[in-house]
């Protein structure tokens, strides 16, 4: 592999890892607090992407500045997280928190299938694309390789900002402290006056918003097609399992590892592009069943 090809693979891998991290950290955050493995998480990713493109294209067609497509990415993510995620938690998940985990998975899978069809009803099967954010930031040169600034700088920096803000939120804010208390012991947290139901609601909206943000930010880099949510949720599970469910910083490391591995496969052995993330996951789980950063827990028999 030449040096230029290696640099291209690294740029591709880091950009892809940034997007996967945003989705995977939302998934692992929700699981860590609520204990729910949300299959419908992939639908939030797809809805965030489609809504961002719909809003961005509408703004540019109406004659507004193309720079407004940037805030539209975040508006779309928050809208999907608050409305779609909030409704799902309020009217569905609150009724099954006390049920078996298998039932929770089946219910969220059913929601995922419903949302996939709703997505087709609203946007059809034609591909959507919005290139304005990519074009507006232009290109940069990295060790002689010209690459888009959106993927080389914007996406990785935003992923790091999200990681730092999420960790700060959990450690240094009152709501974050309440989330950690509920995660450790829900009954004890309720006994000291913490509203666990409200904490679950906030946590799920944050997780859904992160998934939608990953989709919205991915929109300028790829064509939106039906099924994109299914592909991303499977990959997010691989990242979360590799890191260890509930591990926020671990999700960043696992996403980078899988993103770079997948990108190197694209340039050296394209037939293994799809397999590499799962091969890495299997190798990690064989030697560390709890994931790279997971902690083994005692089970009562």
From TrEMBL:
<protein>
    <submittedName>
        <fullName>Branched-chain amino acid ABC transporter permease</fullName>
    </submittedName>
</protein>
<dbReference type="InterPro" id="IPR001851">
    <property type="entry name" value="ABC_transp_permease"/>
</dbReference>
<feature type="transmembrane region" description="Helical">
    <location>
        <begin position="44"/>
        <end position="64"/>
    </location>
</feature>
<keyword id="KW-1003">Cell membrane</keyword>
<keyword id="KW-0472">Membrane</keyword>
<keyword id="KW-0812">Transmembrane</keyword>
<keyword id="KW-0029">Amino-acid transport</keyword>
<comment type="similarity">
    <text>Belongs to the binding-protein-dependent transport system permease family. LivHM subfamily.</text>
</comment>
<dbReference type="InterPro" id="IPR052157">
    <property type="entry name" value="BCAA_transport_permease"/>
</dbReference>
<feature type="transmembrane region" description="Helical">
    <location>
        <begin position="149"/>
        <end position="170"/>
    </location>
</feature>
<keyword id="KW-0813">Transport</keyword>
<keyword id="KW-1133">Transmembrane helix</keyword>
<feature type="transmembrane region" description="Helical">
    <location>
        <begin position="105"/>
        <end position="129"/>
    </location>
</feature>
<feature type="transmembrane region" description="Helical">
    <location>
        <begin position="15"/>
        <end position="37"/>
    </location>
</feature>
<feature type="transmembrane region" description="Helical">
    <location>
        <begin position="70"/>
        <end position="93"/>
    </location>
</feature>
<feature type="transmembrane region" description="Helical">
    <location>
        <begin position="275"/>
        <end position="295"/>
    </location>
</feature>
<feature type="transmembrane region" description="Helical">
    <location>
        <begin position="199"/>
        <end position="218"/>
    </location>
</feature>
<dbReference type="Pfam" id="PF02653">
    <property type="entry name" value="BPD_transp_2"/>
</dbReference>
């Amino acid at each position: 592999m030449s040096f230029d090809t290696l640099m291209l693979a690294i740029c591709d891998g880091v950009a892809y890892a940034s997007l996967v991290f945003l989705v995977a950290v939302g998934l692992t955050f929700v699981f860590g607090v609520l204990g729910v493995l949300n299959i419908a998480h992939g639908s939030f990713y797809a809805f965030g992407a489609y809504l961002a493109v719909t809003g961005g294209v509408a703004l540019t067609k109406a004659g507004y500045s193309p720079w407004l497509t940037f805030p539209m990415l975040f508006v779309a993510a928050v809208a999907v997280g608050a409305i779609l995620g909030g409704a799902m938690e309020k009217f569905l998940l609150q009724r099954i928190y006390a049920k078996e985990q298998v039932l929770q998975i089946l219910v969220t899978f059913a929601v995922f299938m419903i949302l996939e069809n709703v997505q087709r009803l609203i946007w059809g099967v034609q591909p959507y694309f919005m290139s304005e954010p990519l074009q507006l930031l232009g290109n940069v040169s990295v060790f002689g390789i010209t690459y888009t600034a959106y993927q080389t700088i914007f996406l990785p920096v935003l992923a790091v900002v999200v990681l730092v803000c999420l960790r700060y939120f959990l450690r240094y804010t009152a709501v974050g402290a309440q989330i950690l208390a509920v995660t450790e012991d829900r009954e004890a947290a309720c006994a000291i006056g913490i509203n666990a139901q409200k904490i679950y609601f906030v946590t799920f909206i944050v997780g859904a918003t992160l998934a939608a943000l990953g989709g919205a930010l991915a929109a300028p880099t790829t064509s939106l097609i039906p099924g994109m949510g299914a592909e991303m949720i499977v990959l997010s599970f691989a990242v979360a399992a590799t890191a260890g469910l509930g591990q926020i910083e671990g999700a960043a490391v696992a996403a980078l590892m899988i993103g770079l591995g997948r990108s190197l496969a694209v340039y050296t052995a394209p037939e293994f592009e799809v397999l590499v993330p799962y091969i890495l996951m299997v190798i990690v789980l064989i030697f560390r069943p709890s994931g790279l950063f997971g902690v083994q827990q005692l089970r009562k028999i």
